[in-house]
Write a structure and sequence with these properties.
Layout (H helix, E strand, L loop, with lengths): L2 H27 L3 H39 L12 H40 L14 H38 L7 H7 L10 H39 L3 H5 L10 H20 L1 H18 L4 H5 L11 H20 L1 H24 L11 H34 L4 E2 L2 E2 H37 L17 H13 L7 E3 L6 E3 L9 H13 L5 E6 L2 E6 L1
Antiparallel strand pairs: 1-2, 3-4, 5-6
Helix pairs in contact: 2-3, 3-4, 4-6, 6-8, 6-9, 9-11, 12-13
GO molecular function, one term: microtubule binding
GO cellular component, one term: cytoplasm
Pfam families: MAP65_ASE1
């Protein structure tokens, strides 16, 4: 038996005992039977009324609680095994808590909805989809809060982008001397920043407006730069005074509308002045043309092909021809600037290499001070390595250029690689010529020494190992004078490395004597001549 059944049986038993006791009391008092029945009916009715009132009180609370639970998507009340009093008490307590939660959630929903409307007004977006007539769940409120948080971040990002673009638009309009024309431009520049609608369309329109203004600004800068370049050229050609140039200093830097108008006016003035000074202008252009001819390595035939360069009839047509030629040369140089600069580097390196090669054969370079000889040798070795690398790099660039242009790349009227090969060949021939000249001079000196003897030379301060002191040399000369009775007798020291000639004067030998002397030298035992050149001192040793 259930506990509730036991409680019900006990309650019925207690009620029966109470009624029996009540009947006993009525009998003692002497209440008639009909009144007893009447009083019993009153008690029964009172119990029924109490039960009905409990049911009436509980039913609305239960309905509200069940509806609230359904809105919260939760479970209903558990009223099994409870008395009416307990059930009423629990329902009222839980209903009070639920009503508080409902009030809080509805209040928060209204707050979030208000914030959502404000953001939607600023960003022109669609409100969050939620039913305002029902109580939201915790998950719905969390989702709503997360949505508004992301929307607020997006609003702040768009506002920052709007402020940055607005500043750039104002700067561009100031530089262009332009006022807002359309209603959108006035909304951007003149109205309050907080009142601007931060929709995607408006942000895109802002970016488009900024792009248009920047393009217009770039066009003005290009026009102003072209004016400035032309003004600078005409100033140089016309030799305009510095005082007149300083009056345009502000306009030569800024590119606003007023600056562009001032530059255009100056160009017209200089064009009129150019017509008045035709000869001077043409001569100045010819000087520039000659410089570009040099920079572009034009050959003599290419230069002579421009016949107006040699015309002396200074007319407007001649001026136009020179200006067109100058523009063509400038374009040609700019198009192939990297190649021309590479050729220039090679030419400078080659010139320095030739200078260092020429110093190699100069005996005076051994008298250097401060280590210049080592520096020159290191520099010559570096150039000897770098020149072929530079030539290889230029060859690759020239080959690519010739493939693109379908013509040969000429330097001074001939192909650059051919020109390089010719320069190396000329250097080789020059070295060969110098070598032959030195050999011929050496042979002539040997023949002269054989015919007339070796001339005594003053020893230098720096002597080789074994070179006698001046005192010993004087003694040796004295000995040579004593034993110098034989014609052409020359005493040579094999170990001291010096030679002393007899002071006796000799007549030149005839051709027959020279021939016989040479024959005797050939038939004699091995006689070897060693010729050393060391700091200008010539030593002949005979073994």
């Amino acid at each position: 038996m259930r506990r509730s059944d036991i409680h019900a049986a006990e309650s019925v038993e207690c009620l029966n005992r109470a009624l029996n006791r009540l009947k006993d009391i009525w009998e003692e008092i002497g209440i008639p039977e009909d009144q007893r029945l009447q009083r019993t009916d009153v008690v029964r009715k009172h119990i029924k009324v109490s039960s009905a009132s409990f049911q009436t009180s509980i039913e609305p609370c239960g309905s509200v609680g069940r509806a609230w639970c359904l809105q919260r998507q939760g479970c209903g009340f558990e009223d099994v095994g409870r008395t009416m009093l307990q059930l009423e008490k629990d329902i009222r307590s839980r209903l009070e808590v639920m009503m508080k939660q409902k009030s809080q959630r509805v209040k928060e929903l209204k707050t979030l909805s208000k914030q959502d409307r404000e953001l939607c007004d600023v960003m022109c977006s669609v409100p969050f989809c939620i039913d305002m007539d029902t109580v939201p769940s915790l998950e719905q409120l969390d989702s709503y809060r997360s949505y508004l948080k992301d929307l607020t971040k997006e609003k702040d990002r768009r506002h920052g982008e709007f402020v940055g673009i607005k500043r750039q638009i104002i700067v561009c309009m100031e530089e262009l001397d332009q006022l807002p024309d359309t209603s959108f431009e006035r909304d951007v520049v003149c109205e309050d920043e907080e009142a601007f609608c931060l929709s995607n369309d408006n942000i895109a329109a802002l970016q488009l407006l900024l792009g248009q203004l920047e393009d217009r600004k770039t066009e003005n800068e290009l026009v102003c730069n072209s004016y400035r370049s032309k003004i600078q050229e005409l100033w140089e050609r016309l030799q305009v005074l510095q005082e007149e140039r300083e009056g345009m200093s502000d306009h030569m830097v800024q590119s606003r509308k007023k600056n562009m108008d001032a530059l255009e006016t100056e160009c017209r003035r200089l064009d009129e002045l150019k017509i008045k000074n035709m000869k001077n202008v043409i001569e100045a252009i010819r000087t520039e043309v000659a410089l570009f001819w040099e920079s572009c390595y034009y050959s003599l035939e290419q230069r002579r092909a421009f016949t107006p360069y040699y015309d002396v009839d200074y007319t407007v047509e001649l001026l136009n021809l020179h200006e067109a030629e100058l523009l063509s040369l400038k374009k040609h140089y700019q198009d192939h600037r990297e190649l021309f600069e590479g050729v220039t580097r090679w030419q400078e390196s080659w010139t320095l290499f030739l200078q260092l090669e020429k110093k190699v054969t100069d005996p005076s370079r051994f008298n250097n001070r401060g280590g210049n000889l080592l520096k020159e040798e290191k520099q010559r070795a570096d150039l000897q390595k770098s020149l072929p690398k530079l030539e290889k790099s230029l060859k690759a660039q020239i080959d690519l250029w010739e493939e693109e242009q379908y013509r040969e790349f000429l330097v001074n009227g001939q192909r650059f690689l051919q020109y390089v090969e010719e320069q190396w060949e000329l250097l080789r021939l020059e070295k060969e010529r110098e070598k032959n000249e030195r050999q011929l001079k050496k042979n002539q000196q040997i023949e002269h020494d054989l015919m007339y003897g070796t001339a005594q030379q003053t020893p230098s301060k720096r002597r080789l190992a074994g070179t006698p002191t001046p005192g010993k040399a004087r003694k040796l000369n004295a000995t040579s004078s004593i034993y110098g009775s034989t014609p052409n007798s020359t005493l040579r020291s094999a170990f001291r490395g010096t030679m002393c000639q007899s002071p006796v004067l000799r007549l030149p030998m005839s051709a027959s004597k020279v021939s016989s002397a040479l024959t005797i030298c050939v038939q004699a035992q091995r006689i070897t001549f060693f010729i050393f050149y060391f700091y200008g001192l010539k030593i002949i040793t005979i073994f």
